[in-house]
Every structure is written in C-alpha cells, then in structure tokens.
C-alpha cells in the first residue's frame, strides 16, 4: 500500500490502467470529458506493473484496473465511477 500511497500523493486524480483494457479506456475518457487531467499509470507499460497490480488487489480493487483515486483516496473501479457519474456525483469530486 505504501507504493500506491506514494504514487497518488500530491496528485488530484490518478487512474491505474492497462492500455489493452476497454473499461480503463472508457473511464479515462469519461474523467477527461469532465475536464480533469488525471495522472495515468499503464500497468502493462511500467517496470513494476505486476507489483502495483497485486497492491491494488490487496486494497480491494476487483478487478485491478481501472482503479481511480481522487484526492489521494481510493474511489473505486469502473462500476463505482460510472454510478457516481450517473448520479451527478463524479464531477464535484473532480473539482
């Protein structure tokens, strides 16, 4: 968890993603369409991606990607983000 904490610290929005994951792509597009500019970590393109993925699974992100952090807090995966958006609660979190 310390590794994840250091990766999200001082960043308003972070998405852990895989470049081949369609849900990751959708969540990145959704968050960018709201006007946010998230930091994105593509786990299949970073050296310690498998280690990061294991850490995400340990904190309860099932599946491991996409995993969204806003304000250094773990918000959730694609279902949670889409539900927040549908309830008009995602944009206020990002602002």
What does this structure look like?
The longest helix is centred in the N-terminal third of the chain and has 12 residues, at 22-33. It contains 5 helices and 4 strands. It has helices at residues 2-8, 22-33, 49-58, 78-86, 90-94; strands at residues 13-17, 39-42, 67-70, 73-76. It has a 4-stranded mixed sheet with strand order 2-1-3-4. The protein has a single domain (2-94), classed as 3-Layer(aba) Sandwich (Glutaredoxin), CATH 3.40.30.10. With 95 residues, it is α+β, with helices and mostly antiparallel strands.
Secondary-structure map:
Elements: H1 2-8, E1 13-17, H2 22-33, E2 39-42, H3 49-58, E3 67-70, E4 73-76, H4 78-86, H5 90-94
Parallel strand pairs: 1-2
Antiparallel strand pairs: 1-3, 3-4
Number of helices: 5
Sequence of secondary-structure elements? HEHEHEEHH
Strand order of the largest sheet: 2-1-3-4
Give Rg in angstroms. 12 Å
What is the CATH superfamily label? Glutaredoxin
Structural class: alpha+beta
Question: Which spans of ≥5 residues are poorly predicted at pLDDT below 50?
Answer: none
Describe the structure concisely.
The protein is of the alpha+beta class.
């Amino acid at each position: 968890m310390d590794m994840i904490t250091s990766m999200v610290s001082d960043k308003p929005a972070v998405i852990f993603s895989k470049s081949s994951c369609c849900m990751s792509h959708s969540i990145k597009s959704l968050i960018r369409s709201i006007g946010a500019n998230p930091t994105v970590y593509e786990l299949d393109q970073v050296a310690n991606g498998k280690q990061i993925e294991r850490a995400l699974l340990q904190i309860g992100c099932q599946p491991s990607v996409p995993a969204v952090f806003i304000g250094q807090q773990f918000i959730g995966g694609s279902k949670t983000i889409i539900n927040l958006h549908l309830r008009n609660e995602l944009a206020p979190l990002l602002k």
